[in-house]
Specification:
Elements: H1 2-21, H2 33-36, H3 41-44, H4 53-57, E1 68-71, H5 73-77, H6 81-93, H7 98-102, E2 114-116, H8 117-125, H9 130-138, E3 143-144, H10 148-156, H11 161-182
Antiparallel strand pairs: 1-2, 1-3
Helix pairs in contact: 9-11
Length: 188
């Protein structure tokens, strides 16, 4: 009997503690990472959204994904499907140049709100290191996607697997990656 009473006492204690922890007024206040982020045009469109490139272009670029590998969050919000498809086709027909890469501070070389395969290749041809290319990809604050065919296109043109892996990481982070990339960093 004593053993059952002890077990019951533990269960009741756990239930009480759980109930008290759920009470807002006595729970210690902590700020979540999302709450701590700045608000404004960069992050406002991302809150509560989970963007996928397929949502933007549907199947219009085929199973390979065309030349489009990233888009600014507002492109999703504004439903810029036709614009995204046109950007992908233009990138195929008139690729970015080394001069474009040298005149840009992000991987979005022409500042149109998209990153395309040719822009990443132009960064490599401009002599940027893997670390510099990755930094420019990160600095776009865009939502990324990379298909195996797109990865093969990049690696066939000298882009390292480290850069391709970073694009995959950015794709996995999705809109959260764009939020985190746009958040200011502070050092202690």
């Amino acid at each position: 009997m004593k053993r059952n009473d002890g077990f019951r006492l533990v269960i009741v204690g756990v239930m009480l503690a759980g109930g008290l922890w759920g009470c807002e007024s006595i729970r210690p206040h902590t700020t979540s990472m999302i709450e701590a982020l700045p608000t404004g045009p960069t992050t406002a469109g991302l809150m509560g959204h989970s963007y996928l490139m397929k949502d933007l272009v549907d199947d219009q670029l085929g199973p390979t994904g065309g030349f489009l590998i990233a888009a600014a969050p507002e492109k999703f919000d504004q439903h810029k499907q036709q614009e995204a498809i046109a950007v992908s086709r233009k990138a195929e027909q008139a690729p970015a140049t080394v001069a474009d890469a040298r005149n840009s501070v992000t991987a979005d070389l022409n500042g149109d709100g998209y990153v395309t395969l040719d822009e990443v290749v132009a960064l490599k041809h401009a002599g940027l290191s893997d670390a510099e290319i990755v930094s420019r990809l990160d600095n776009t604050h865009q939502v990324f996607s990379l298909t195996p065919e797109q990865e093969r296109y990049l690696t066939d043109r000298g882009i390292s697997h480290d850069v391709a892996n970073r694009i995959y990481e950015l794709a996995k982070m999705g809109s959260a990656g764009a939020i985190m990339a746009s958040a200011p960093t502070t050092r202690p």
